[in-house]
Write a structure and sequence with these properties.
The structure holds two protein chains of two kinds.
Chain A: H1 8-43, H2 59-69, H3 80-96, E1 107-109, E2 112-114, H4 124-134, H5 136-145, H6 149-180, H7 185-195, H8 198-201, H9 203-216, H10 228-231, H11 241-266, H12 284-310, H13 318-347
Antiparallel strand pairs in A: 1-2
Helix pairs in contact in A: 1-11, 1-12, 2-11, 3-5, 3-11, 4-6, 5-6, 6-7, 6-9, 6-13, 9-11, 9-13, 11-12
Chain B: H1 3-24, H2 28-48, H3 52-77, H4 89-111, H5 130-139, H6 142-164
Helix pairs in contact in B: 1-2, 2-3
The chains are: A mainly alpha, B mainly alpha.
Amino acid sequence: MYLLATDLWFILEKAILIACIIGLSFFIAMYTTYAERKVAGWLQDRHGPNRAGPFGIFQPLADGGKLFFKEEIIPLASNKILFLVGPGLAMVTSLVTSTVIPWGAPVVTGNGTIPLQVADVDMGILIVFSVVSVGVYGIMIGGWASNNKFSLIAAIRGASQMVSYELPMGLALIAVIFMTGSLKMSEIVASQAAHGWHVVYQPLGFIIFFVCALAECNRTPFDLPEAENELNFGYHQEYSSMKLGFYLFAEYINMFVSSAVITTLYFGGYDIPFVNEAAWGLEPWLLSLVSFGVLMAKIAFFLFVFIWIRWTIPRFRYDQLMNLGWKKLIPLALANMIISAAVMLWLRR
Amino acid sequence: MNIIQILFWFLSVLAIFSALMVITSKNPIYSVLWLIATFFAISGHYIMLNAQFLAIVNIIVYAGAIMVLFLFVIMLMNLNKETEPQKSRWLKIAGALAGGCLLLVLVAALKSSVTKEQFATVNEGSIGLIKNLGKELFTTYVVPFEISSVLFLSAMVGAVVIGKKE
């Protein structure tokens, strides 16, 4: 049997890494819900959750427990199988992107190096993009299977919004790929550590990418698929219990993962700015830990920006959303791409 | 059986089964979803042939964009079992015969071809890697590549013109 001859340690190492990343994503997503409510509290001059534990620190556990024990309702007229598939798909697509993100500097041990990245494939950035493009199905299938016209309208809104904003996102990415000459996530981080962060060279590209990330996560000001005042509750209106929890949770995991992607592409990933951390002579595992901490700090900042925007800017109208996507962001992204290409050619970098 | 063979059989069975489900499902939504599964299985095959770029583009373009539009249209048209037009029996028989003839021609053509011995090599060759593919596309095949992009542009302009017509 050849099958048993495969490197079992390799599989074990990756399995542990995957388990850690999924656990981490869930944990961060849980506390992002808490942060969202706390930040909303500050911005609206009130306290936010402060009853469960000190400073309300156990609030996410209470919320999760409540969702678990809610009654599970499956509408009679719904499509049973797809009604169950929808939330699962939303969760899976939100988690899959985290496989290609480098979470820290590789750990060097006596027996070789262990990269803190599940898969360092040649196509790294394109895999992120393909998962984003497949991410529409969770919303579409769930909204259609509910057999409710509000859900269907929300699903179709969500799908057209996500398809529209993928285009400027991809065009902004091309300029980043110009700078590094590689699609590998690890090389994108390495080139930023060597030449400086991409946000310095690509400020416009970063803004376009960030706006598109907001739209892809269905966050305010682009949360039209769940606009309460016109669509009740959007595509998850018929959902209850943990299936609703999956949809709500998938949004926070999406936020976490897209913050990680933004950090990796534009803010140097796990690189510490202004210093050459390799010259410190730290133990390799300590260096990995520090770089992981730096990455987490940057991600936390972007999560805060996501929340900050949600509680500051009101929702767009649907035609405004489409105008912004097709008539402003795509030409801007195209111009950004062409100018970056021209400058690169001129400088012969 | 090594792991590559196991993967090959798994992906082949998945591709053929989901392709069959596309044409046998009564509900058009299920057909579209099975078609997406077929695209994923075929992408898996591309990866096993070391054509990574093709695999990812297949997912981004077909599974991620074109199928979304298919789902869109089908959801809005609200097609279901009751409204599906029933074809006459003779039409079905004629369709089966025509399809069978096509299959016969394909099998006959493949049987006598010289490429019978040249099986696709799994996990070998580097032309499918993005670096080599890009070099080939922009040096050897640059004229057909640019012409096809102009074709896409004209198709886009045509779609906009049709959409604008009141």
